[in-house]
Every structure is written in structure tokens, then in C-alpha cells.
Design brief:
The protein has about 240 residues and is α/β, with parallel strands linked by helices. About 35% of the residues lie in helices and about 25% in strands. It folds into two domains: about 130 residues, NAD(P)-binding Rossmann-like Domain (Rossmann fold); about 100 residues, Dihydrodipicolinate Reductase, domain 2 (2-Layer Sandwich), CATH 3.30.360.10. It contains eight helices and eleven strands. A hairpin with a 4-residue loop joins strand 9 and strand 10. Helix 1 crosses helix 7, helix 3 runs parallel beside helix 4 and helix 5 packs parallel to helix 6. The radius of gyration is 19 Å and the shape is elongated.
């Protein structure tokens, strides 16, 4: 499979290593030094594009892939106000898009566990729920996309909470997400249910970027030759 990498920072390089090890070819690498090379013609050399950039460039990058007729896997966060527009464009163009806030296999299993625990805990409102996420100081957005996914899963089930806030909660209806930036942490997420009696916690801790990179390549393999909008649930059969 031929892959275009949009974003060639630490994550892009980790994806390249995994992809090459799995027998794929990187035919295009785009970073801040060669943005002019992200043309329709260059993108069309690839079977799939993998996009890991930032909140200010992700939307345009994904649209460029859809316009070029190239399936695109995106892991950029901080741009989700435009997600519906991208999905509509993908449908109109008969394109293929797979977005995930986190491509780690472990994190996606953690999402499933979070939903199950939220269902159990919804019967016991005397437990208050909060989320903590820790990332390296180079992370550009807060809270993390993974923390937002965890929070939105809880809000769909726990009707005592109405919205999430990126600070300690001041109202009982608020779900607090506490963001910490500490080097060299690649990513730790904890969901905590607290009462005066006891606490219940689930935590996922990433040790390196390999898990994220592997999941992104698996997503690209899944997306090749497909049309539509997908998620990691389909990739992992969850």
C-alpha cells in the first residue's frame, strides 16, 4: 500500500516506521517545510493518506484528500467544530474518512470499558465523576481529544452531568476534565468516581507512540478501497 503522510513530526515518523515494517511504501511526506507539495497530483500517488497535523491545518488537509479522491485517516485534534462539514463533504464526494481522537488499540478498548463503567455507575449518583489527562508539554490542545471522547461517552449515559469543563467543577452538573502538561508523558487518562466512602478509578497509560502509530496504520489498511465514514470500532471489530 502507498501512503501519504500529512504531518511529519514525531507521530509522523513513528507511523512511517510502523508502516515500512508492515511492508508499505511512503510516497509523500508533508510538513511545514514543504506545504506547497501537498497538491492533488501528489496526493493521488497514494492509496491512503494519514493526517496528523494540528487544529489549524487539519480541516484543509482532510478536505484536500477528499477532493483528490484519496481515503484519509485523521488523528488531529482540536478542530472538531468542523467535523460535520468534513463528513458532509466526504459523503457528497463519495470519499472515505476515518477519524479517531486516539488510534491506540488499548485506548479504544479503554473507551469500551469507560462506557460500561458509566452504565454501572449511573445507578449510584452519590459517586461524582471526573477525568484527568496528562500529556507532554508540546501538546497543542487541551483537553486532549481522548479526554473529550471519554467525557462525551459519560455525558451520554450519566444524566446527572450536563456538560464538561476544562477545570475543577463548580456545579454538580459539570464534569471536570483536569489537563496537566508534564514531560515526557506521551499520554495518561484517568476516569475517577469518588464518594465519601471510596473511589473507583480506571486508567490508561501510554508508554510510547508505537501504540498510536500501529493503530493509525491498521486504520489505513482498513480504509483502503472503501467509501464512507468509519471509526476505530470498525477497524477493531468492537
Amino acid at each position: 500500500m502507498k501512503i501519504a503522510l500529512l504531518g511529519y513530526g514525531k507521530m509522523g515518523k513513528a507511523i512511517e516506521t510502523v508502516a515500512v515494517d508492515r511492508g508499505h511504501e511512503i510516497v509523500l511526506k508533508i510538513d511545514i517545510t514543504n506545504l506547497a507539495d501537498c497538491t492533488k497530483e501528489n496526493l493521488q500517488q497514494a492509496d491512503v493518506a494519514i493526517e496528523f497535523t494540528g487544529p489549524h491545518t487539519a480541516y484543509d488537509n482532510i478536505c484536500s484528500c477528499i477532493d483528490a479522491g484519496v481515503p484519509v485517516v485523521s488523528g488531529s485534534t482540536g478542530w472538531l467544530n468542523d467535523l460535520k462539514n468534513v463528513q458532509d463533504k466526504c459523503i457528497q464526494k463519495n470519499g472515505a474518512l476515518l477519524y479517531a481522537s486516539n488510534f491506540s488499540i488499548g485506548v479504544n478498548l479503554f473507551f469500551e470499558l469507560n462506557q460500561h463503567l458509566a452504565k454501572l455507575m449511573s445507578h449510584y449518583p452519590f459517586y461524582d465523576v471526573s477525568i484527568e489527562e496528562i500529556h507532554h508539554t508540546e501538546k497543542k490542545d487541551a483537553p486532549s481529544g481522548t479526554a473529550i471522547t471519554l467525557a462525551e461517552q459519560i455525558l451520554q449515559i450519566n444524566h446527572h452531568k450536563k456538560n464538561w469543563v476544562n477545570q475543577p467543577d463548580t456545579l454538580p452538573t459539570e464534569l471536570a476534565i483536569i489537563s496537566k502538561r508534564i514531560d515526557p508523558a506521551p499520554g495518561t487518562h484517568t476516569v475517577k468516581y469518588s464518594s465519601v466512602i471510596d473511589d473507583i478509578e480506571i486508567t490508561h497509560t501510554a508508554h510510547n507512540r508505537t501504540g498510536f502509530a500501529t493503530g493509525a496504520v491498521l486504520a489505513a489498511e482498513f480504509l483502503q478501497n472503501k467509501i464512507g465514514i468509519f471509526s476505530m470500532k470498525e477497524v477493531l471489530g468492537l
